[in-house]
Structure formats: C-alpha cells, structure tokens
Fold this sequence. Notes:
single chain, 272 residues, mainly beta, 6-stranded mixed beta sheet, 5-stranded antiparallel beta sheet, 41% strand
Amino acid sequence: MHFVFKVALFITGVCLFGSCTEKIGAVSRVTDGKEADGANHRKEQEDYYDEKHLRYEDHIYQSNIYTVKMHKKGFGLNPPVFMLNQANDGIEMSFDDLDNDLKDYQYSFIHCNADWQPSGLVANEFLEGFFTNPISDYGYSIGVRIPYTHYALTLPNSNVRFTKSGNYLLLIHLDDPEEPVITRRFMIYEKSLRIDTQVKPSSVVNERTQRQEVGFTLYPGVLGVKDPMAELQVMLLQNNRWDNMVSDLQPVFIRENVLVYDHNEANVFDGG
C-alpha cells in the first residue's frame, strides 16, 4: 500500500505563538489563577459541544451539507497544500447542499500558527483583496434521487491573493461568520530549505512488516537558524491525516547547518 508523508516545518519566534507571558503578581494570585483556569476549561468544554462553536479543524456544522472536498488544484487526491506566489498553483474546494435551494454562501480566512490556533494576524497582513467573498460558482443537480445544489471554489482567485505562507483555516458561512457552515484546513508553503526524506521498514524487528519509519534531514541554509530546538517546529503527517500527526520532533544530530531527524520510534506509522 502506498502512503504519502508530508513534513511541515515552521520557523517560529517565541512571542509569535504567545509564549511570552507576564509573571508579575503570579505568586500572590495562584489560587485565583487556578480557579479562573478551571472555569475557562469548563466553558471551553461546554462551547465545544455547541454546534456553532468554531473548531480550528476540518468540520461540518450543518446536517444539510455533504461531500465536502478540498485538494490541490488539478489533483483530486492530493492534500490542500500549495506554494506561495506560484502561478497556477492553488486549491479547489466544493460541497453539496441537500436543501436544493440557492444560498448566499460566503468564505473568509483565519491565519493560524503551528498549533492551529489564530496567529493574531489581521487580514491585510496575510492577503490582498477582499477578506469576505461570495461563492458564485454553483449548479443544480439533474436526474438524481436526492436533489442538491453544488458549490465550488478555487483559491487564490481574482478576489483574493495570499501574501504569507503558513496554516490557514477556510471558513464557509452565510451572513454571520460567527455561525460557521464548514471549516477546512489548508497550508501555503515556501521553498526556503532543502528536505531529504527516507521511508523504510520499522527499526523494531517484530514490526518491520507492519510499520513504516520516516527519517528526514533538513538543510536550513539561508534561514539563519541559530537554535533549532526553539526556532523550528516540525510536524509529520501521513496521507493528510491529523489524527495521528507526529509533532514536536527534535533533531537527533546537528552538524554544520544540517539537522538529522533519524528517530527509531517517534516517527513510526502503521503501514496499513
């Protein structure tokens, strides 16, 4: 069975992802802080089960929506990943609405950090064009048992162009962005460094016929990475699956601007 593995690499500044915290008064407010954290956690759990709660993941929020697809432009089986500012490169997204009427669906974006949480960038910092746009490509089903309306979208397009690489959340909604209909993840990358990969049977003898080991080497080159442990975040995905993603990988060897990620267990996936 053939598998596709993808290495996602993020160059991160500590403060960019909210790691810088103000500690003044922390000791005197420990109890209050714990109580507040507990209340916030309970609130988050309650919100998560609300159908309108925005999830920063692939999700369908309404029962009339089916057949949601999102992939690299022209390649129906490839994940929704494309290169920044590359002509004719992009993604295609489509879905069906079984209400079989015409709705004013709109789309917008949230720029996310490596952990798929909002990065804090505002729209004009990561795109050019209109932040919210209507989906104007649609069609009605013909000769089917269950009628539906088909909607399609291509990105980038004449209304929007991305200016920054990174993780993005596509948000499909009607009039109110606070009431999502669909959310889908996609990624935009830049060719800033060289990555050599190797897929081989697991190093564990009794798992060699069942599991695959993914090793890779990074050549940061012009990026000027001084502290790879702190500045680089590496995620390893199998067939665009987020449920078994391997994250927080650290290099096993570092030598003269070469980072070797040749783990024996941390980067092993089931082969079938």
